[in-house]
Amino acid sequence: xxxxxxxxxxxxxxxxxxxxxxxxxxxxxxxxxxxxxxxxxxxxxxxxxxxxxxxxxxxxxxxxxxxxxxxxxxxxxxxxxxxxxxxxxxxxxxxxxxxxxxxxxxxxxxxxxxxxxxxxxxxxxxxxxxxxxxxxxxx
Length: 139
What we know:
The protein is mainly α. The chain has a domain at 22-107. The protein is built from five helices and no strands. The chain has helices at 10-20, 24-46, 50-70, 74-105, 132-138. It starts with 9 loop residues before the first helix and ends with a helix.
């Protein structure tokens, strides 16, 4: 029997992988992915509706995951796809749903000293207005 040849070292596999994505075509692919990421980031910022913004944010997470995969970081790409594409937009949508449900049922906690008061003077406060002596003391 002939002895089995030992497998090539791990560094040799890494060198082959790096050579597979090099040259002008790889540079064009990276530039296109960076441009798409910049375009998606701009779309996230310019989207006004919050639910739609969460959906666009999910697409942005997918584009970033693709960019990381092109840049040969598959572990970071998988994490980005899991967190940026699924988890963060899901949390945003759930928070929006909970906020809207709380607002619709009227379970908002009372606010103190923000916004116009009930007396319509636009100065906030507890809404009970000021006495004449209080107004005179300020003048």
